[in-house]
Amino acid sequence: MSDFRRKKLLHVFNVFFDVNRSGTIEKKDFELAVEKICKTRGWDKNDPKSQDIKDILYKVWDDLQKRADVNQDGQ
């Protein structure tokens, strides 16, 4: 893998998945992503749009965990 491709993948991992920069992907990252998106958009947590984003991102987390969390440690 080229150095450019490695850097690009690390960027995507750090920006879009490992939101809390713990080095792993866990549900907390998706919770933080929901908070950031809603805050950026100015949506209250009771706004239906906030719930839609939460539902979508939690589904992504659930699917990712089912497929990638081989040892089922939540990361």
UniProtKB/TrEMBL annotation:
The keyword Calcium applies. InterPro entries: EF-hand-dom_pair, EF_Hand_1_Ca_BS. Signal peptide: none annotated. Keywords: Calcium. SUPFAM superfamilies: EF-hand. PROSITE patterns: EF_HAND_1. This is EF-hand domain-containing protein.
